[in-house]
Amino acid sequence: MSRALQAIVFDFDGVIANSEPLHLMAFQQALADEGVELTPDEYYSRYLGYDDVGVFQALGRDRRVPMDEHRVATLVARKGERMHEMLQSGTVLFPGALEFIREAASAVPLAIASGAMRHEIDEIIDGAGVGDLFAAIVAAGDTPESKPSPAPYRLAFEWLREQTGRDLDPRRSVAIEDSRWGLESARGAGLRLVGVTTSYTAAELSDAELVVDSLGALTLPALDRLCAS
Predict the structure, then answer these.
(1) Does residue 82 contact residue 89 with C-beta atoms inside 8 Å?
(2) What is the fold, at CATH topology level, of the domain defined by 7-19+92-228?
(3) What is the pLDDT of residues 157-171, one digit of tens each?
(4) In this structure, CATH architecture of domain 20-87
(5) Distance from C-alpha of 192 to C-alpha of 66, rounded to nearest angstrom
(6) Which of 2, 33, 177, 201 has its CA 20 to 30 A from that of 215?
């Protein structure tokens, strides 16, 4: 069948993997050694959209705590160790995510545009048996700027075009996001916007053209209708 939908670019944390609570715990543990507290309210309201480097830099600015390059690198490494330990403890995929990814991959090319560390993404998707279903993955450090800059989505879409050899149209391609920072990034790259309410309410994701409560509630016909509009 001819589809209006040409491609899907997923955010990772909060969309595919329910790893945001793990990230928060890992940040909290890394910062505890420095005597810095990070509350859940602060994390979800101020820092969710950043990659690891961005979180520590922004926290330093907000708290007026010196965060030079060496200190940030030390904290990122410490946070990564804590995260790795927690990822080993069990599956973190959202219910329905695996099924939707497999169904979508049989119809259109898929990519990931995320602020997560590449090894964390690989560890989770390879462990779930879907690593080979993504034609392109943009992770932390792949672009000079992280979300809400359009750079991660632009690069993911560019790599998707290169890998597939297709002249994909961003207006017929969908970004799936759980945060307003991510939606802003995807909008800047010209993609259609789908929000999932795993981290924020539908009202907080009002920039999205379509809002669902999870990937398990999303269908390809719904994305076709969005891209045809």
Answers:
(1) no
(2) Rossmann fold (3.40.50)
(3) 999 999 999 999 999
(4) Orthogonal Bundle (1.10)
(5) 39
(6) 2
